[in-house]
Amino acid sequence: MTETMAGMRKLPSVATLLERTPPDLFHQFGRTAVTDAIRDAVDTARKQIIAGAPVPSAEDIMINSLVSLEQKFSSDLRPLFNLTGTVLHTNLGRTLLAEAAIEAATAAMRDAVALEFDLETGQRGERDEHVRGLLLELTGAEDATVVNNNAAAVLLALNTLSQGREAIVSRGELIEIGGAFRMPDIMTRAGALMIEVGTTNRTHARDYRAALGERTGAILKVHTSNYRIQGFTAEVGAAELAAIGDAAGVPLINDLGSGSLIDLSRYGMRDEPTVRGAVEQGAGIVTFSGDKLLGGPQAGFIVGRADLIEAVNRNPMKRALRVDKIRLAAIEATLKLYLDPDRLAERLPTLRLLARPREDIEAQARRLQPVLAQAVGNEFEVSLCACDSQIGSGALPLDTIASAGLVVRPRSGSGALNRLAAALRGLTRPIIGRAADGGLVVDLRCLTDEDMFVSTLSELAARGPADARRHP
Ligand SMILES: *Cc1c(COP(=O)(O)O)cnc(C)c1O
């Protein structure tokens, strides 16, 4: 007991520690946070002394304070290396925006902009006007509007056309996508009575025709973006479905999911429907996402027949789903890049990454193999590997893109691998790979800043994987 008392007396006081704190620290974190951190560290030390631990030095307490300050002030949203092989990784924020979009968004953040103000007349303007013309030009639609994301676009379109009415959908298209977005639930929340037709694998034109009636508000077609039904199958194409609807005066809503503004076959990606194609097929409304293949910020686009878009715009729900000036600026700048298709792959990171040739990635893997091997140390073996990148976000689920990377395998025991993965996640710029084949695979398709990667790895080497593990 007396020993503990003596220890307590030797423990530096908060006031003493504050006097000795370098001014830089106050400058960086502010006096309040520094004082709190030091007080917490002293409290912890006191508890440890009571539990029998030796008295820490003033320096130890300062180090502990600094570690906790750094943790508190570092963001979990800090940039990281997405080396998962999934280019549009929903959990890692999907798209990287084009420089033009970043600049436009930053400028809009910093200053007032004419968001709903007409600079020509000085009258109130419409926020959609900034992107409407571009969307019409790029899709061939009569009218267009934009909301928070494609989930919101589908909800709003359904609610506008079929609240209190029936919406017909094929059983083969009742999809669930990530984040608990289930089409039947969305239809219910939109106030539509879902009328399922056909079977899981086969739905025919006669099924839709038989379901049409007085109370039908819309026919819904959903792009089965994250799976494929193969084998003995039948579906009714959008053009035929639009015609069936037209004959009964019922509009077709075609949810494309990702969709694309250009034909991607030029970049080796087949089969993703274009928005222009979907509009030409006669859908009353086409919805698609801003941050999937389009390569822009999160957004949902609703394009189609002028009278239907007008009805969507009159829906009070629209106000709850609208986008702000920052995203509108980024969307506008992104869409403008599509006006110059020849340079699109250079300027739009999503497309640039998807189109990156395998040889290029493999050469990078060769360069980085010794660097990574040195950083992870003798406990691991690092070798070149072939990878199959995925587009992600449900686009073209069965198509993979040949890629290359490195696989890190522990020389003994799998515990080491978990520790390494945790250490990589704990870096200033976390490195996120993918567990596969008893190793950690880093697919280098999305590695654009090689120098930054190398200097991040030196951080790992300096700490040592075992030490870095303690840093969350
Ligand atoms: C991704 C997707 C959505 C939702 O789009 P978000 O922009 O992520 O909200 C809706 N429908 C389909 C078919 C999709 O693939």
TrEMBL record:
Known catalytic reactions: L-seryl-tRNA(Sec) + selenophosphate + H(+) = L-selenocysteinyl-tRNA(Sec) + phosphate
Pathway it works in: Aminoacyl-tRNA biosynthesis; selenocysteinyl-tRNA(Sec) biosynthesis; selenocysteinyl-tRNA(Sec) from L-seryl-tRNA(Sec) (bacterial route): step 1/1
Pfam families listed in its UniProt record: Se-cys_synth_N, SelA
A single GO BP: conversion of seryl-tRNAsec to selenocys-tRNAsec
Record's protein name: L-seryl-tRNA(Sec) selenium transferase
Keywords noted in UniProt: Cytoplasm, Protein biosynthesis, Pyridoxal phosphate, Selenium, Transferase
PANTHER family per UniProt: L-SERYL-TRNA(SEC) SELENIUM TRANSFERASE (PTHR32328:SF0)
One GO CC annotation: cytoplasm
